[in-house]
Design goal:
272 residues; mainly alpha; 3-stranded parallel beta sheet; 3 strands
Length: 272
């Protein structure tokens, strides 16, 4: 529908072609438009690709996997700061990552420990930090997430220097996905793209399967894939896209769980 709307706009403007820049979900719209109307595309840029798929199980898998991929990339970047710190620095200052070395091991030790309150705080903290990356970028939310993670690991609270000074208000109390709400309008758009709907039992099975496969990434399913799976929106699945004659500039994102780099790689393999 959006692709057809774009072409109606092009016709109304009296232009023979459109040059498109697709960001996030716009990459899917741009890809579909260029498939339906390749002769109408002047230039095409797809920046920060979403892996929109027609099946809810595949959608759940990429959403959870994207969280895991982003967290792995951030922890690797955090660890990489340790060898370059040649002089002693105060905790949380300078170029050294606050939670380094081994931030993921610290997270896992809290998640698997006997203190369930600490485990819940750690999980929600990381979920909040990863959710904030989509809206605010790695700086400052990546650094703040690691500062707060180290505070939880060392002191059991979120009050150490460098933690939560500029973090979204949710981080000091009831933590949650920053900038996201259950049944956000964009989720209904994604639901229209997915042909599958699930029963409550099917949703429970899906969450159980993803929790085993992606213990950290399953947090994303609680508001996104689940809302899609039970949406009352009538499905209008996205058609297969690709044009062998139309090149596109595809830009990948390394630190945004909503637009994982693997989605950019997939888009590059499905021309445009």
């Amino acid at each position: 529908d959006l692709a057809h709307d774009l072409d109606a706009m092009r016709a109304a403007l009296g232009s023979n072609t459109l040059s498109l820049v697709g960001l996030s979900y716009g990459t899917e719209v741009g890809a579909v438009y260029s498939t339906l109307y390749p002769h109408r595309v002047g230039r095409l840029i797809l920046d920060g690709n979403m892996e929109v798929v027609n099946d809810i199980h595949r959608a759940a898998d990429w959403m959870a996997r994207a969280i895991e991929e982003t967290w792995a990339g951030l922890t690797h970047a955090c660890d990489s700061t340790i060898p370059t710190s040649l002089t002693p620095q105060a905790e949380g200052t300078g170029g050294q990552c606050s939670a380094g070395p081994y931030p993921d091991q610290k997270l896992q030790s809290m998640l698997k420990g006997s203190n369930k309150t600490l485990a819940a705080l750690a999980m929600n903290l990381v979920s909040s930090g990863l959710g904030a990356l989509s809206a605010g970028g790695v700086a400052p939310y990546g650094a703040l997430t690691f500062a707060c993670l180290e505070s939880l690991y060392r002191h059991g609270h979120l009050e150490a220097p460098g933690c939560c000074a500029r973090f979204p208000p949710a981080a000091s109390g009831a933590l949650g996905f920053v900038g996201h709400k259950v049944a956000h309008a964009s989720i209904f758009v994604l639901a229209a793209d997915a042909a599958t709907r699930l029963t409550p039992a099917g949703v429970a099975t899906l969450i159980s399967e993803m929790a085993t496969k992606y213990p950290l990434g399953v947090t994303a399913l609680m508001e996104n894939a689940v809302a899609m799976a039970v949406s009352p929106i009538i499905p209008r699945p996205v058609p297969a896209y690709g044009s062998p004659t139309l090149p596109a500039l595809i830009v990948g994102s390394l630190h945004d769980p909503a637009t994982p780099y693997s989605a950019a790689q997939k888009m590059a393999g499905d021309p445009p």
